[in-house]
Design goal:
This protein has 125 residues and is of the alpha+beta class. The chain has one domain (8-108): OB fold (Dihydrolipoamide Acetyltransferase, E2P), CATH 2.40.50. Helix content is 19%, strand content 35%. The protein is built from four helices and nine strands. It has a six-stranded antiparallel beta sheet with strand order 1-2-3-9-8-5.
Length: 125
């Protein structure tokens, strides 16, 4: 299982990568493997300001539909348009081309409430 050390993780299997004033969010390699083949993403929150753990969209796989939760509070600046046409990017490259949203973090202190790579590894076993 790929768990990059530079990212932070939620217990619901989202990751966040902070780059200056903005951050990228997606689901983990573990999450995409548990979901199976991802066929559709429903993310209609661009421009919305959401609280930590609030739902920003959903991911539909062959097996199930799962909510996507904000790892930290912030404004959704951009939705990755590539995943609308190619949802398999989330399966093939969850930490790269398969990112889901770009956000403006409104409370950086919330990052300290997230798991580091070792903590996430312990969570998933």
């Amino acid at each position: 299982m790929n768990i990059p050390v530079e990212l932070r993780y939620t217990k619901e299997h989202e990751w966040i990568r902070v780059e200056g004033e903005v951050a990228y969010v997606g689901i983990t390699d573990y999450a995409q493997s548990e979901l199976g083949e991802i066929v559709f993403l429903d993310i209609n929150t661009q421009g919305d300001t959401l609280a930590q753990e609030e739902v920003f969209g959903s991911v539909e796989a062959v097996k199930t539909v799962s909510d996507l939760n904000m790892p930290v509070s912030g404004e959704v600046l951009e939705v990755n348009e590539s995943i609308n046409d190619q949802p398999e990017l989330v399966n093939n490259d969850p930490y790269g081309e398969g990112w889901m949203i770009k956000i403006q973090v409104s409370n950086p202190a919330e990052l300290d409430t997230l798991l580091d790579a070792a903590g996430y590894q312990a969570l998933i076993g």
